[in-house]
């Protein structure tokens, strides 16, 4: 499924591999998305607060992180899009080992205005009541845009959740085996140079 992520980016073919560990250092549940070759978002993992997961990717494959419930974008090194660093920048010559890049997903630094707008959007039942607010027109427009984005993301997540439930019931016996196998392969690959 496609979600308009607001960026004109996509993955490109690459030979430069990258080995990363995504860590959610926020107090929110975060969806980790890979931006594929057609600029579509692919949900890779949902991380609870302080969760981590390892992934093997490529230098030219962008990643985006969003709050699971609001669709608000999180940041890595103050950027909304993470571009992995190639593996050869993380070699430890003393241990003859490739180190994974620890990527800390953080809550963005927001202005007081943006905090207030997110607070209002989270409490709105529908976007029609925005017109009744006694605030400047420019703020109403910003709230409408934010509300539409939030609503679109919630609809996307609901559709995705129902698709996942169908897939999960069909593949329940295979999922644990493949997840454990992938994690073991990632750890094994990290040990080899």
Whole-angstrom Rg: 19 Å
Uncertain ranges: 171-193
Instruction: Please state the overall shape, judged from the principal axes of the Cα atoms.
Output: elongated
> What is the overall pLDDT average?
79
| Helix/strand class | alpha+beta
Q: What is the CA–CA distance across the termini? A: 37 Å
Q: Would you count the extended β strands for me?
A: 9
Strand order of the largest sheet: 3-2-5-6
Number of helices in the DSSP assignment = 3
H/E element order: EEEEEEEEEHHH
Quaternary organisation: single chain
Helix content: 25-40%
In this structure, how is the largest beta sheet organized?
Answer: 4 strands, antiparallel
Strand content: 15-25%
Explain what you see.
The structure is a single chain. Helices cover 34% and strands 23% of the residues. It contains three helices and nine strands, in the order βββββββββααα. The strands form three sheets. Strands 3-2-5-6 form a four-stranded antiparallel beta sheet, with no helix packed on it. The radius of gyration is 19 Å and the shape is elongated. The C terminus is likely disordered.
């Amino acid at each position: 499924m496609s979600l308009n992520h607001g960026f004109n980016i996509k993955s490109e073919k690459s030979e430069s591999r990258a080995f990363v560990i995504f860590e959610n250092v926020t107090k929110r549940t975060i969806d980790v998305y890979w931006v594929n070759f057609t600029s579509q978002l692919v949900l890779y993992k949902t991380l609870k607060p302080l969760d981590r997961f390892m992934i093997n990717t490529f230098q030219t494959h962008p990643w985006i992180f969003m709050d699971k419930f609001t669709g608000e974008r999180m940041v890595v090194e103050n950027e909304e899009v993470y571009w992995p660093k190639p593996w050869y920048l993380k070699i430890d010559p003393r241990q003859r080992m490739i180190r994974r890049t620890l990527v800390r997903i953080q809550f963005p630094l927001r202005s007081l205005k943006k905090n207030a707008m997110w607070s209002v959007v989270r409490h709105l039942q529908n976007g029609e009541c925005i017109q009744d607010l006694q605030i400047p027109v420019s703020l109403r427009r910003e709230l409408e845009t934010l509300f539409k984005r939030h609503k679109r993301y919630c609809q996307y997540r609901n559709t995705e959740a129902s698709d996942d439930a169908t897939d999960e019931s069909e593949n329940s016996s295979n999922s644990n085996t493949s997840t454990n196998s992938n994690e073991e392969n990632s750890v094994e690959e990290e040990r080899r140079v």
